[in-house]
């Protein structure tokens, strides 16, 4: 079963179980996916799992930003709500790689791409991002690449 269909099925199941929070979160996700289909002019074509993951990653990033803002503003109840929604979202995303795994991939790609100085950071990012897209947080990857290339210049 495709991810898009699984989200729809889970949304219907949550509504039948009268789980308002989960059905609301899944309805929001499903609406975002339908909007993506409309925006990309794919109303009649099936949406691929890769496209679903891209939309889910965008929604997860929005949730993380909201959590940060709510916590900075002292709105812990809203931050908790966003955390619960993020938890539901993460169930549909592929397992995220840890910092050590990302660092290992960066090291391997740097060797393969011939990265020798901090000037080659964009070259390394270009080699690493396609391999880690959807599997690791972009900010984490960027920070680790910066750390790696700065260690080359020292």
Q: Shape from CA axes?
A: globular
CATH H-level superfamily of the largest domain = Uncharacterised protein YqeY/AIM41, N-terminal domain
Binned strand content: under 5%
- Number of folding domains? 2
CATH architecture of the largest domain: Orthogonal Bundle
Secondary-structure-based class equals mainly alpha
Uncertain segments = none
Rg, rounded, reads 19 Å
Largest sheet: none
The average pLDDT score comes to 87
Number of helices: 7
Can you write the helix and strand succession as a string?
Answer: HHHHHHH
Query: How far apart, in Å, are the first and last alpha carbons?
Result: 50 Å
Level-1 CATH class name of the largest domain? Mainly Alpha
Fold topology:
Layout: H1 3-16, H2 20-39, H3 49-72, H4 76-90, H5 99-113, H6 121-132, H7 138-153
Helix pairs in contact: 1-2, 2-3, 3-4, 5-6, 5-7, 6-7
Account of the protein in words:
- This protein has 154 residues and is mainly α.
- The chain has 2 domains: 3-90, Uncharacterised protein YqeY/AIM41, N-terminal domain (Hypothetical Protein Yqey, Chain: A, domain1); 99-153, Arc Repressor Mutant, subunit A.
- It contains 7 helices and no strands.
- It has helices at 3-16, 20-39, 49-72, 76-90, 99-113, 121-132, 138-153.
- α1 packs antiparallel against α2 (20-39) and α5 (99-113) crosses α6 (121-132).
- The longest helix is centred in the middle third of the chain and has 24 residues, at 49-72.
- The model has no long low-confidence stretch (mean pLDDT 87).
